[in-house]
């Protein structure tokens, strides 16, 4: 389904335009309820699942080698986050990616901590050859994989989202930069990982040619929720709960807007 109208790259600095696109994406997500299968960091599974539920997506988390391909092929997107790797998970990741490729399901790669472990970095390089639709990482992770976001995007054919104080989203030829969020987002384990799952839900409902804009819209939504949560939080603990509340409230507001306009 076409999500329109997406802004041109020079229009992403327009706060109103970004909010309109993010809300329209949320309306479609709540209507279609995409399933996202998550092979993710065990530390962040609950936060990841709850963030997906807050926007109307349906999470699943099984990494059992006997069923991971079945979960993947019945999903609309696959998240691969290598934050807590072991041998069994590596086997499940390969099986899940194989099922995603066989069924034309976009898979999203979050190469967590590859700059801290040479074996992990080598494994990440293996996964790059399997055609991720999106690679999301911080500056160190993206730098190790491809030097800079545009080079990595051209090398892999994926959308690349390098997140930090300024987020950069590129397909190798077009680049969108985004400002937003709050420093408290870096003080809660798993906000970035859960945010990557949110981007997976965005990709699940758009055609390939609209992935760049969908990722930018998803990051804009996460940053907006982070800012709103920080305005009420008293520290990292309350912030973790509030960002879920804010994501949910923005999502529900978008649904109400659709109902009022029907």
UniProtKB/TrEMBL annotation:
Pathway: Cofactor biosynthesis; thiamine diphosphate biosynthesis; 4-methyl-5-(2-phosphoethyl)-thiazole from 5-(2-hydroxyethyl)-4-methylthiazole: step 1/1. Substrate binds at residues 61, 190. Pfam families: HK. One of its GO terms (molecular function) is hydroxyethylthiazole kinase activity. One of its GO terms (biological process) is thiamine diphosphate biosynthetic process. SUPFAM superfamilies: Ribokinase-like. The keyword Cell membrane does not apply. Its cofactor is Mg(2+). Keywords: ATP-binding, Kinase, Magnesium, Metal-binding, Nucleotide-binding, Thiamine biosynthesis, Transferase. It is an enzyme of class 2 (transferase). Its EC number is 2.7.1.50. ATP binds at residues 136, 163. Catalyzes the phosphorylation of the hydroxyl group of 4-methyl-5-beta-hydroxyethylthiazole (THZ). HAMAP family: Thz_kinase (MF_00228). This is Hydroxyethylthiazole kinase. It comes from Sneathiella chungangensis. The lineage of its organism: Bacteria, Pseudomonadati, Pseudomonadota, Alphaproteobacteria, Sneathiellales.
């Amino acid at each position: 389904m076409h999500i329109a109208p997406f802004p041109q790259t020079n229009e992403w600095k327009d706060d109103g335009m970004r909010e309109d696109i993010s809300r329209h994406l949320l309306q479609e997500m709540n209507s279609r309820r995409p399933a996202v299968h998550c092979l993710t960091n065990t530390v962040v599974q609950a936060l990841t699942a709850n963030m997906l539920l807050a926007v109307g997506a349906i999470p699943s988390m099984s990494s059992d080698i006997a069923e991971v391909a079945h979960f993947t092929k019945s999903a609309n997107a696959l998240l691969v986050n290598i934050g807590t790797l072991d041998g069994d998970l590596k086997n499940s990741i390969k099986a899940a990616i194989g099922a995603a490729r066989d069924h034309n399901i976009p898979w999203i790669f979050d190469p967590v901590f590859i700059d801290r472990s040479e074996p992990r970095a080598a494994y990440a390089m293996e996964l790059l050859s399997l055609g991720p639709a999106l690679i999301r990482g911080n500056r160190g992770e993206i730098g190790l994989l491809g030097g800079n976001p545009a080079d990595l995007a051209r090398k892999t054919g994926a959308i690349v989202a390098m997140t930090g104080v300024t987020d950069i989203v590129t397909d190798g030829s077009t680049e969108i930069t985004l400002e937003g969020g709050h420093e408290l987002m870096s003080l809660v384990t798993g906000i970035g990982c859960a945010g990557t799952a949110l981007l997976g839900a965005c990709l699940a409902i758009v055609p390939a040619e609209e992935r760049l804009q969908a990722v930018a819209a998803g990051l804009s939504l996460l940053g907006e929720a982070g800012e709103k949560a920080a305005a009420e939080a008293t520290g990292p603990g309350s912030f973790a709960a509030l960002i879920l509340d804010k994501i949910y409230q923005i999502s529900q507001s978008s649904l109400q807007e659709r109902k009022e306009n029907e």
